[in-house]
Amino acid sequence: xxxxxxxxxxxxxxxxxxxxxxxLACEIVPTDIDESQLSGELPERYVVRLAQEKxxxxxxxxxxxxxxxxxxxxxxxxxxxxxxLGKPEDDEDARDMLQALSGRVHQVHTAVALxxxxxxxxxxxxxxxxxxxxxxxxxxxxxxxxxxxxxxxxYGIQGLAGAWITRIEGSYTxxxxxxxxxxxxxLRKHGLIAL
Length: 195
Hints:
This protein has one domain (6-189): Maf protein (Alpha-Beta Complex), CATH 3.90.950.10. It is globular. Strands 1, 2, 3, 4, 5, 6 and 7 form a seven-stranded mixed beta sheet that branches. α3 (91-101) crosses α4. β3 and β4 (83-85) form a beta hairpin. It is built from six helices and seven strands; from the N terminus they run βαβαββαββαβαα. With 195 residues, the chain is of the alpha/beta class. The mean pLDDT is 94.
């Protein structure tokens, strides 16, 4: 087992896998924060704020123990016409989101926060995603797979819904939940990886 090289303020198995791609192991330290969007808050500001708050909550959670590693936190949201589409509350909510995305272009915003050396620094990745028009039967089939349950915008590009994506402009891994280039750049800036 590779020793942890950072604390990850997330339960996301996708983020763990993407960090492994960078040769990093992590200790998962999930945080629970209020993820409500503030009135008038733009989607980009929303994800940046949540990533910062998750990193700060993890710092607080680890305050009673000797921290050996930096903390990484992230938040991802899907936005269409300035409206945030978070994780679905239920299947009906997921159906509504997928119908809203069907045949349209949307943005996926992922903010990554690094708590290190007494500061929290955040980077933002925004990817433009175009989804093909979806039939009711396609949406129903996807919902039956349960793949949508923990995903912003009710879909995962790395799963079955990847077959619906006609074009992306930006970071594929950002749409998955952790933009590898931006994350590596942030860690590299602080001398935490050599890549």
